[in-house]
Design brief:
Blueprint lengths: L1 H22 L2 E8 L3 E10 L2 E11 L3 E6 L5 E8 L9 E6 L2 E8 L8 E3 L2 H32 L3 H28 L5 H8 L6 H10 L2 H4 L2 H16 L5
Parallel strand pairs: 1-7
Antiparallel strand pairs: 1-4, 2-3, 2-5, 5-6, 7-8
Length: 240
């Protein structure tokens, strides 16, 4: 009887351990309307190189699943191999987090129609991208007017447009800094600092760094920002 109880306990322990292991990481569900055949890839960037984490062959079923060893929030990419197509709409960046996430999109507008749920960092990153897009629109308009001023040799107008471009860039940086500071409890904050405003004045990067929670400071992007700021300070020290 004791032997039976001991064996049962061991089995229950094994099941519990397996369940715990299976619940770790990222459980990603992907649905691409209109995709009947092809291949999807999930990868991340390591030292400027794309490293594949998983590949999914699509054969008729547009609803797919992938379990990934994601231990902390980080930016990943879902890409579509369209074969001989020349379409450039083939990649969806998403801020992955441990847990359950879903990506729903269409074959026709793979990136533009992507809807991602299950990640607070991704929601915040989308909020930031909306801010960035407004500045991109203004900067593109200013660039168009600048090219026209150069073509017509309108020096006074060109000077005014150059000043406007500088102000737009400064405002976009200040908004990015404020956004990162206000969201210091999430890993998106150091990520924005590292990818969007890495060349900002070191005092602004320091402000973002100080706003990070202890948990974020220990994260992948938190550690990278700490190292980057330290390196910048060493490089910018006055030479004796």
């Amino acid at each position: 009887m004791k032997k039976i109880i001991g064996t049962a306990a061991a089995v229950l322990l094994l099941v519990a351990c397996n369940k715990t292991e299976s619940e770790k990481g990222l459980h990603l569900s992907v649905k691409v309307d209109g995709l009947k055949q092809g291949k999807l890839y999930i990868h991340k960037i390591v030292d400027t190189t794309a490293v594949a984490l998983d590949s999914i062959i699509v054969t008729g079923n547009s609803e797919l699943k992938s379990d990934l060893a994601v231990e902390e929030p980080e930016m990943l990419y879902l890409s579509l191999n369209r074969g001989v197509s020349k379409s450039m709409d083939n990649m969806i960046p998403f801020f992955a987090e441990p847990g359950t996430m879903t990506i729903e999109t269409t074959l026709k507008e793979f990136y533009a129609k992507a809807k991602i749920t299950g990640s607070k960092n991704n929601d915040l990153y989308n909020d930031y991208k909306k801010i960035k897009e407004r500045y991109n629109d203004e900067q593109n308009k200013t660039l168009g007017f600048t090219l026209l001023a150069k073509k017509t040799n309108s020096l006074q107008k060109l000077d005014s447009l150059n000043q406007r471009a500088d102000k737009l860039k400064l405002r976009s940086y200040l908004d990015a800094i404020n956004f990162a500071v206000n969201n210091g409890k999430h890993e998106v904050a150091p990520y924005i600092a590292l990818t969007e405003i890495y060349d900002a004045n070191i005092k602004y990067l320091d402000t973002i760094h100080k706003s990070m929670s202890p948990e974020v400071a220990k994260s992948k992007y938190g550690k990278m920002l700490t190292e980057y700021i330290s390196k910048r300070k060493q490089e910018e020290q006055p030479q004796p």
